[in-house]
Amino acid sequence: MTRAVKAAKASKAATASGPSAAAAGRPGRRAAGVSLGQRVARALCGSPSVRRAVGGTRTSFRPQALRTAGWRERRCAVPVFEVDRRGPAAAERLPRLWVTEPAFDPQSGERAGRAYVGAYPTDPDCGGWRAFELASRYFAEGLGGCGAEGAEADQHRIDCFRAAEVLYLHSARRGNLKAWVKLGTIYAFDMAEGRYWQGLLESRAAHCFVEPARKAFACFSRAALAGDAEGCWQLGDLLAAGRGCARDDRRAFTLYTRALLHGANAEQQGLAALRLARCFEGARGCSLDLGKAQALYRWAAERLQEAFGDGQWHCKRELHEARTGAARMAQELHGGY
Predict the structure, then answer these.
(1) Are 233 and 276 in contact (CB under 8 A)?
(2) Statement: residue 19 has pLDDT above 50
(3) For residue 48, is the peptide bond before it cis, meaning its omega torsion is within 30 degrees of 0?
(4) CB within 8 Å of 190: residues ≥ 6 apart
């Protein structure tokens, strides 16, 4: 046996015994929690959207008489998501995910664990909209659990954001611009608390940790480069605060201006105008101009009030800031409210 062959075998053995191999799984290994019956059900019913159309998680292929205590326990043990077939040969590609939804008892209406509703990807998904829809469901579920306390609630929330991240990555790689903005939001607020997807090379590298704020900067940059209004002002916020990048007030001001021009609705225009008003009030990236600041605060309040009336209730804090800013500028300019 030559020295090269011995070295190759030793390298292969070291790779198989390393911690990254345990995380990646053996080649061809499927998710252990997904039964053959669930795989057949997915093959027959198709995508998760089709499964929801015929009843969603309330639909079960098991007769009511066979839903024993053991069946209910197994249903309660279903995780938030499960990675399927993550082997070393495909570790650099995004994995297939088995997605779940909260399940409810059809008789009592109480929550009874979770149920698998399908897998992603299963088809080309042009534009990544199916992945975006699935990710948005996980994202909303994670946000809904932010008020809950306890280790189990924290783990559930983190798992929701981890699943949303992988699905948003699938969507972004298929050309969905909104997915880059959502990814940036997850990274900017560190919603998964550092537990993000890593490929095989990243898991093996000794110094592969990337600060979430830097990931957010990269995602918002992709969206802003394509002209997305939210991506522009989100990137401007990172530049104004110096998070994940060097502070640059002038570039942030330019991005806020671009966001105002590209705003497609009242919410986007109001949020961009609010940020421009802050810049003119504090001379951040531009000259001090309280008159322009007052006009922008007033216009931002009008647009955010319109968005709030349309159901965008998360704009309430920004709406209050715009109104108080306009009143503050009136006092500065005219000596009264």
Answers:
(1) no
(2) no
(3) no
(4) 212
Residue where the block lists tokens 């929701």? 160
Please report the DSSP string for 108-128 in residue order.
Answer: T--EEEEEEEEEE-SS--GGG
Q: Which residues contact 296 (CB under 8 A, 6 or more apart)?
A: 273, 274, 276, 277, 280
Dihedral of alpha carbons 166, 172, 173, 174, sign: positive
Whether 112 and 77 have beta carbons less than 8 Å apart is answered as no
Going by their DSSP bridges, the two strands 96-104 and 111-120 should be labelled as antiparallel
Model pLDDT for residues 31-47, shown as the tens digit of each residue: 877 878 778 777 777 76
The span from the CA of 81 to the CA of 159, in Å, is: 8
Residues near 321 by beta carbon (within 8 Å), at least 6 away in sequence = 274
Tell me which H or E stretch contains 82: strand 81-84
Which string of b and e fits 90-112 if b means at least 16 CB within 10 Å?
bbeebbbbbbbbebbeeeeeeeb
Q: What is the pLDDT of residues 116-157, one digit of tens each?
A: 888 898 888 899 999 999 999 999 999 987 766 788 889 999
As a whole number of angstroms, the distance between CA 80 and CA 192 comes to 14
Contact status, residue 138 vs residue 160, Cβ threshold 8 Å = yes
227-337, which class in CATH?
mainly alpha
Residues recorded for the chain: 337
Three-state SS for 17?
helix
